[in-house]
Amino acid sequence: MDDHFLIGISDRTNEDGARQLAGYLEAAGFSAELVDIRGTDGLLHLKSGITYLGDGRILVVDALAGEIALDGYETLHVPEGEEYAANCVRVNDHVLIAAGFPGVKAMLDGLGYNLIELDMSEFQKMDGGLSCLSLRF
Prior knowledge:
By secondary structure, this protein is an alpha/beta fold. The protein is built from 3 helices and 8 strands, in the order βαββββββαβα.
C-alpha cells in the first residue's frame, strides 16, 4: 500500500519468514505490518481478502474488516457471497476484477474505477485468483 506493506501470516507464510521480510523492507526504507490470517475461513493468502486500490482505499472481506493494520484507510466491504472478488488487481488506471460479482462491480464502478472483468471461473475452482496470476514490477 504505497510505501507500506502488509505481510500475511498463514499456513503458507510463517511468522519467522514474515518478520524477516518485514526487516528487509524496513532496511530498504519501507514500513511493514504483520496480519495473522490463520484460522480465517476462506483465505488462502492475505491477498485473497484484501486489495489496496490506491488513494488510501482498500477492498476487504468482512472477516478482515476489523484488522488494526487497516486503520486510517477507507475500507470498502465486499458483499456477502462475493468474497472471491476481493482478490483484484489495480494496474495504472484500471482495476482487473473477476467476472460474475455484480455487487463488487457496481461498488467500484460507482466510485469511478475503470474496470476490466475477466473470466476467472476455472482458476477459482482451485482457489487461484487474479493476484496469483500477476507479475507486477
